[in-house]
Design a protein that fits this description.
The protein is built from no helices and 29 strands. The protein has strands spanning about 5-15, 20-25, 30-35, 40-45, 50-55, 65, 80-85, 85-95, 95-105, 110-115, 120-125, 130-135, 140-145, 150-155, 165-170, 175, 180-185, 190-195, 205-210, 215-220, 225-230, 245-250, 255-265, 270-280, 285-290, 300-305, 315-320, 325-330, 335-340. A hairpin with a 4-residue loop joins strand 16 and strand 17. It is globular.
Length: about 350
C-alpha cells in the first residue's frame, strides 16, 4: 500500500534575515527548476495527479500550467530544462506516451514540441543554440524550441534503440550507440572514432570530456575489474583507431565482495567520483577520487571508513558550489558537510 505524505514547497526571502514561507502542500514534489524569479515544479495533486506548476514565491501565485494527462494519474513531468528563457520537459500523454513540452510560465504558453508514438524522448541537453534529446527510434533529435523547428540530428541505420551515452563540452557533443564507436559533433560536422579496445572482459560504462582529454571507464560484468582510459581530443580523427592510454587499473583483491564507482561530478577539467569497495579479508572503504585524464592526476583524495550493511560512514550527495565539490560524509548521526 502506497502512503502519501504532504510535501511543503518553501520559499526563502531575504529581508532583515531569512524566513520560510509555506507556498503550497502536495503529496509529492518530484522535480524543480528555477527561471528568473519563478519556480517551476512537478507536484502530485489530489485532483490532477502529477503535473507542472509555477509560483513566484507566494501561496496565491501557485498555478497549474496544464492538465496534460487528465485524471488523477497525471503526466509526470521530468527533466525540467531551461532553454530560450523557457522550461522544456518530458511528459506522458495518452496519444504519444513520452513527449517533449515547453512552457513560458503561462497556461496558454504550455505547448507540445515533439510527440511521436513509441519515441519516448529522453536526455534533454542544451548544446549551443539547440535543445537535443534521444529517442527509442534510434535517433537524436534537435529543436529550436518550436514544433516546426524540430528535426533529426542523427539517425541510426536500425531505426530503433537508444543512444547509450550522450555528453557535451563547450565545443562538441559526443555520443555512442554501440559503446564501441564514438561520435563527435560540433552541431554542423560529425566524425566517428573507435573507443578504447581491451582484451580483458570489460565493457563500456561511462564517458567524460575533461578539457582537452576524453576519458572512458570500462568495467567487468561485476565491476571486479575497472579500467580508466584517456585520449587527447586533438589527435582524434574521422574513422580513426587512435591510441587510447590506460591511466588507471582498479582490480579487486578477490571475488568475494564488490566495488563500484559512482557520484561522477565534473568541476572544470577534473572528474570527481566515489570509489566504494568491500571484500572478504580486506578493510572496506569509501574513497573520494579525482581524475584529470592523466595517470598521475587520477588518484585518491581522501579515504573514509565504511562498515558494509551498517549505519556507518559513506560519501554521498555530491554537488558543486562556488567552484568546489561539496559532499556528505561521516558516521551515522555524525554526518558532516565536506568540501574539496
Amino acid at each position: 500500500m502506497k502512503r502519501y505524505l504532504p510535501v511543503l514547497l518553501l520559499a526563502l526571502f531575504s529581508h532583515a534575515g531569512f524566513c520560510q514561507q509555506n507556498i503550497a502542500s502536495f503529496r509529492e514534489i518530484t522535480a524543480t527548476q528555477a527561471l528568473g524569479d519563478r519556480i517551476f515544479f512537478a507536484a502530485n495533486h489530489d485532483q490532477y495527479g502529477t503535473e507542472l506548476f509555477v509560483s513566484n514565491g507566494d501561496s496565491k501565485s501557485v498555478t497549474l500550467l496544464k492538465d496534460i494527462a487528465t485524471g488523477y494519474q497525471g503526466s509526470g513531468p521530468t527533466q525540467l530544462t531551461v532553454f530560450n528563457n523557457q522550461i522544456f520537459f518530458i511528459a506522458y500523454t495518452r496519444e504519444f506516451g513520452g513527449s517533449v513540452w515547453k512552457t513560458d510560465g503561462t497556461p496558454q504558453g504550455t505547448q507540445l514540441v515533439y510527440g511521436v508514438q513509441n519515441a519516448e524522448p529522453f536526455n534533454l541537453m542544451v548544446f549551443k543554440d539547440k535543445l537535443y534529446f534521444t529517442t527509442n527510434l534510434g535517433s537524436i533529435m534537435r529543436t529550436d524550441g518550436t514544433e516546426a523547428g524540430t528535426e533529426v540530428s542523427y539517425q541510426s541505420p536500425s531505426n530503433y534503440g537508444r543512444v547509450q551515452i550522450m555528453i557535451k563540452d563547450d565545443h562538441y557533443f559526443y555520443f555512442t550507440f554501440d559503446t564501441r564507436t564514438i561520435f563527435r559533433d560540433d552541431g554542423t560536422t560529425r566524425i566517428s572514432f573507435l573507443g578504447p579496445l581491451s582484451w580483458e572482459d570489460v565493457y563500456f560504462r561511462n564517458f567524460f570530456s575533461l578539457g582537452d582529454k576524453l576519458v572512458v571507464i570500462k568495467a567487468g560484468s561485476s565491476d571486479h575489474i575497472i579500467r580508466i582510459y584517456a585520449i587527447d581530443n586533438s589527435v582524434v580523427h574521422d574513422q580513426g583507431e587512435d591510441e587510447w592510454t590506460l591511466i588507471k587499473k582498479l582490480d579487486a583483491p578477490n571475488y568475494y565482495g564488490s566495488q563500484y564507482l559512482a557520484n561522477f561530478t565534473i568541476i572544470g577539467t577534473k572528474l570527481n567520483f566515489r570509489y566504494r569497495k568491500s571484500y572478504e579479508n580486506e578493510k572496506p572503504g569509501d574513497e573520494l577520487w579525482s581524475c584529470d585524464g592523466t595517470e598521475e592526476g587520477t588518484k585518491m583524495i581522501k579515504a573514509f571508513e565504511w562498515t558494509p550493511y551498517g549505519p556507518n560512514a559513506d560519501i554521498s550527495k555530491f554537488f558543486v558550489y562556488d567552484g568546489k565539490l561539496i559532499f556528505e560524509a561521516g558516521e551515522y548521526e555524525k554526518k558532516a558537510l565536506w568540501s574539496s
